[in-house]
Specification:
The structure holds 2 protein chains of 2 kinds. By secondary structure, chain A is mainly α. In chain A, 78% of the residues lie in helices and 0% in strands. Chain A starts with a helix and ends in a 5-residue tail after the last helix. Chain B is an all-beta fold. Chain B has 3 helices and 38 strands. In chain B, a hairpin with an 8-residue loop joins β17 and β18. The two termini of chain B are 24 Å apart. The chains are: A mainly alpha, B mainly beta. Chains A and B meet through α1, α8, α15 and α16 of A and β13 and α2 of B.
């Protein structure tokens, strides 16, 4: 996921350049409707006209960070700061959905500057920073959101999670217990609290909390496994064994299930059963190792190709990507590189293949639509 | 070892300068490297290409190379990478002059190691009574033998352990029961510096170190000592040919109480190894069934360093392993019979490490209350870690034990104020005042010497002599009863991360008087001392073995 996010971010800038090269309206180099024109209007004291251009650009490029910022600046220049913040928030939400967390945080931070008393903007900023793994920076934003009245369960859950990341275990626990007492988001709160207690070695306390969480999400094998771990830690070995057996039946392909079951069987004296489960664990582990390495190698090879593309060595980049096994990530990266190189027909072909293998890729689908449009208009090759 | 150590009475050294001194839980740690005359900066040779060996070293070894009763210090240097054999890579030996002062004697001692160094371990491998040195590095292993006259000489080509690849840590023990010290060396990765992969941010072109999971583990190596410090590869014969994890830390200790040294290896993102010694120089793989291959959740962790110690007073050794940030460090409680349980969370050992990436660690009774504590060296491998609540340079940590298996982190301003990229950690009572001090070596950073100033309490040190060829009694187990507490120590050669600690044993007594000290040599020889004197080092020679 992180890899996909990064690849999307890397290519966003190149795509803008490619669209400009293809003469598509709204591209940054377009003097009539592009971002440069909008910026010039803003600098020339015509914020309303600039806002209109930025908004038009965003209609076709909803993830264009510079356009969001430009629109906000144009609105702010018209003393419409709250509206500007709201538009930035909207942009941040879109970027969050597209897993472009650092850019979402950038927009949310700007929104907070424009509307420092907006709890929603602070909440968005905290979320985006936490998802970007900037936990230290996320914590004050989320705290501020709560101070400003944003006490909905989701915000409190975000804050609790961030506190845990930053070592604020007692406060995280207090927040989660508060949610549980209020009955708000009891399932997620119980799940998070149960895991927090278990992580601290407070297994006996975790058992009833995880039972409650599991009651809210009875299909969750993660919660069932956590409950089994808690029961084992609390010395409820027979109950733990039953839970391990159940979770292993539900998801026998998950290595840790087999490990935990095998270890407990050994502990209870069932040597043959225990060793059999540990053998199953070893096979799954070896397969996981192999897959991890394969995926990792694919990732760095794609990165190496993207690095070539960054240097403008499009042809070499495309060749490198074509030489990789045709996975959705490799094909997606190839589509992006070809798009940035101004080859919409070839790009569309690669993107279609990527989407055929992984239909849920919204980022690739959006790019495919653009490339098809460019190809139809005869831009590029 | 000649007339190495006399009975050294406890002298609380009045050392100059208290810069960097601060309360550290129940004790004070005072950083004194410069005052002690040890100025050493590790050179990792980073040149922008982000080659993994640059971020993995280095370690250090405490040894009494001249037998004067004061522990000397060997610091491993790395230098340029790929290695060019230049003086940049020269390791350093510092002789302990007593009185808290050291002097560099590398050249005088004839030490000329120029490999890209990683770790070191010191022990008497040729059975002549003095401490020899094994140094691991990129390209293999160097063995230098102590000539007994203050000089070291490289082992001859036909007797030195032959090894290539990337050697990280090493450990010694009489694994086959023939009296001399055998050798295990971890080899980290099958790593080609010209791998051609791009690891980093393709948006900016900024490179970072590659994830080690991209590379296969290199097979570790076990060498049998044929006598006189002549080594032969016996990996397959010992049943260790499957030891092909990404090996980093290693320790030999009798984990199952059968008198034979077992082997534990911390591997990076692959299963850790527990090899039970079944006698005759052979091992069986109990990694998974022992519960020490992965954490309690069944997840392989990024194992770095390893330490053994009895943390709960039941006289068997627990295993502590350092890991990556977010994973937490892992404490495996010894349940007996080579079966362990991950108690990292309930013991309090794991949670303080959540935002730390740890390498070296040592178990010692720093506050001398009779319970083992841990000093843990931290520092990331990435200059820009992905999470903002960790950091490249990180404070080392002191975890104070309660003697019943529980730990809490001691607030330690001296450590918090001086974050570094620590790799090697080794403990030693360098000033012979009866408390364990700590030395650390940072990757691309400074050497540090933390002088320990614990609260007043009794102590007892043991200098065990073994019959040749294991003259330093490596593998010795010592148990002490003092007041209501029972304590055990194991004499290891090589543990932590790329390092080796004090070749003597040290017990804190708290307010109690020692009632009973039992020493068990790996040969089967046993000594029992009732009401041994406190506050001093006892020299205890081995009596003829019953075997």
């Amino acid at each position: 996921m992180a890899s996909r996010r990064r690849h999307g971010r890397v290519l966003a800038g190149w795509l803008a350049a490619a669209l400009a090269a293809a003469g598509l309206a709204g591209a940054p180099g377009d003097p009539e409707t592009g971002l440069e024109r909008a910026a010039a209007l803003l600098a020339g004291g015509q914020p309303a006209a600039a806002a209109e251009l930025y908004a038009r650009h965003l209609d076709s490029h909803p993830l264009a960070v510079e356009a969001h910022e430009g629109l906000a600046a144009s609105l702010a220049a018209q003393e419409r700061a709250r509206e500007a913040a709201a538009r930035l928030d909207e942009g941040a939400r879109r970027l969050l959905a597209a897993t472009r967390y650092p850019e979402a945080a950038r927009l949310a931070a700007r929104a907070v500057e424009l509307a420092p008393d907006s709890a929603g903007s602070h909440q968005l900023l905290g979320r985006a920073r936490a998802l970007a793994r900037s936990y230290r920076e996320a914590e004050p934003a989320l705290r501020r959101a709560v101070e400003l009245g944003r006490r909905d369960p989701q915000t409190l859950l975000y804050l609790a999670s961030t506190l845990w990341e930053n070592g604020g275990l007692a406060e995280a626990e207090q927040l989660l217990r508060g949610l549980l007492e209020r009955g708000s988001a009891a399932g997620p709160a119980a799940a998070q609290l149960g895991r927090l207690l278990l992580w601290q070695g407070r297994a006996a306390e975790a058992v009833p909390v995880l039972e409650r969480a599991l009651a809210a999400r009875p299909q969750s094998t993660d919660l069932l496994f956590a409950l089994a771990r808690a029961r084992e830690g609390a010395g409820e070995l027979e109950a733990a064994l039953a839970a391990y057996r159940q979770v292993t039946e539900l998801a026998p392909e998950v290595a840790r299930h087999r490990f935990a079951l095998g270890r407990l069987l050994l502990r209870l004296g069932d040597r043959a059963g225990g060793e059999s489960e540990l053998e199953a664990y070893r096979r799954l582990y070896e397969e996981e190792q192999r897959l991890t390495r394969e995926r990792g190698l694919e990732r760095v090879r794609i990165d190496a190709a993207l690095e070539l593309a960054r240097q403008g060595r499009w042809r070499e980049a495309a060749e490198a990507l074509r030489s990789l096994p045709a996975s959705p990530d490799a094909l997606g990266a190839l589509g992006r590189v070809l798009a940035a190189a101004g080859e919409p027909v070839a790009a569309a072909e690669a993107l279609e293949r990527a989407l055929a293998a992984q239909p849920g890729r919204r980022d690739l689908a959006a790019l495919l639509a653009e490339q098809k449009l460019l190809a139809a208009e005869g831009g590029g090759r | 070892m000649s007339c190495r150590a006399l009975l050294v009475a406890a002298v609380v050294a009045l050392l100059p300068g208290v810069a960097g001194a601060a309360e550290c839980g129940p004790l004070r740690l005072v950083e004194l490297a410069a005052e002690a005359g040890i100025e050493f900066q590790h050179d990792r040779g980073a040149a922008g290409a982000k080659r993994l060996p640059e971020t993995m070293g280095a370690g250090l070894a405490w040894l009494d190379y001249d037998g004067d009763g004061w522990l000397d210090l060997y610091l491993v240097q790395s230098g340029s990478f790929p290695p060019d054999g230049s003086a940049r890579a020269a390791d350093r030996l510092f002789r302990n002059l007593g009185g808290g002062r050291f002097a560099e004697v590398s050249e005088r001692a004839g030490l000329a190691d120029r490999q890209y160094g990683q770790g070191a371990v010191a022990a008497d491998v040729d059975g002549d009574g003095d401490a020899d040195l094994l140094v691991t590095g990129w390209g293999g292993l160097a063995l230098v033998l102590n000539a007994g006259d203050g000089r070291f000489e490289p082992a001859s080509a036909d007797s030195a352990p032959a090894l290539d690849g990337w050697a990280s840590s090493s450990a010694l023990a009489d694994a086959d029961g023939d009296g001399d010290l055998d050798l295990y060396v971890t080899r980290y990765l099958e790593y080609d510096p010209e791998h051609g992969l791009f690891c980093g941010d393709p948006e900016t072109g900024e490179r970072s170190y590659c994830d080690p999971s991209l590379f296969l583990g290199a097979g570790d190596r076990y060498f049998e000592n044929l006598g006189g410090g002549r080594f032969a590869d016996a990996t397959s014969e010992a049943g260790l040919a499957t030891a092909d994890g990404r090996g980093l830390g290693v320790v030999f200790t009798d984990l199952d109480g059968d008198g034979r040294p077992d082997l534990y290896v911390a591997n990076d993102l692959t299963l850790n190894f527990l090899f039970r010694n079944v006698g005759g120089g052979r091992f069986e793989d109990l990694s998974l069934v022992s519960g020490t291959a992965v954490n309690g959740d069944g997840k392989p962790e990024a194992g770095m360093g390893v330490a053994v110690g009895d943390v709960d007073g039941d006289l068997d050794p627990e295993l502590a392993v350092t890991n990556f940030d977010v994973e937490t460090n892992t404490l495996y409680l010894n349940l007996g019979g080579a079966v362990f349980q991950d108690v990292s969370a309930p013991s309090g050992f794991g949670p303080p490490s959540f935002n730390r990436l740890a390498f070296g660690l040592v178990a010692a009774d720093f506050d001398r209350d009779g319970a083992l504590d841990y000093f843990i060296g931290n520092g990331h491998i990435f200059e820009r870690p992905k999470r903002d609540n960790t950091g490249y340079r990180q404070p080392d940590q002191l975890l104070v034990g309660d003697g019943a298996g529980g730990f809490r982190e001691a607030g330690c301003p001296a450590l918090s104020a001086a974050p570094e990229v620590t790799r090697g950690v080794a403990a030693a009572d360098y000033d012979n005042d009866g408390d364990p001090d700590v030395a650390t070596l940072a990757n691309g950073g400074p050497f540090r010497l933390y002088d320990n100033r614990p609260p007043p309490a009794g102590w007892l040190g043991v200098i065990a002599h073994g019959a040749a060829p294991n003259t330093a009694a490596v593998g010795l187990r010592a148990t002490l009863v003092a007041g209501a507490r029972r304590q055990a120590r194991w004499l290891t050669a090589g543990d932590s991360y790329q390092s080796s600690s004090d070749p003597r044993l040290l017990f804190g007594l708290g307010p109690a008087a020692p009632a009973r000290l039992e020493l068990n040599w790996p040969t089967g020889s046993r000594r029992l001392l009732l009401q041994p004197p406190a506050d001093r080092y006892l020299v205890v020679p081995e009596l003829p073995s019953p075997r």
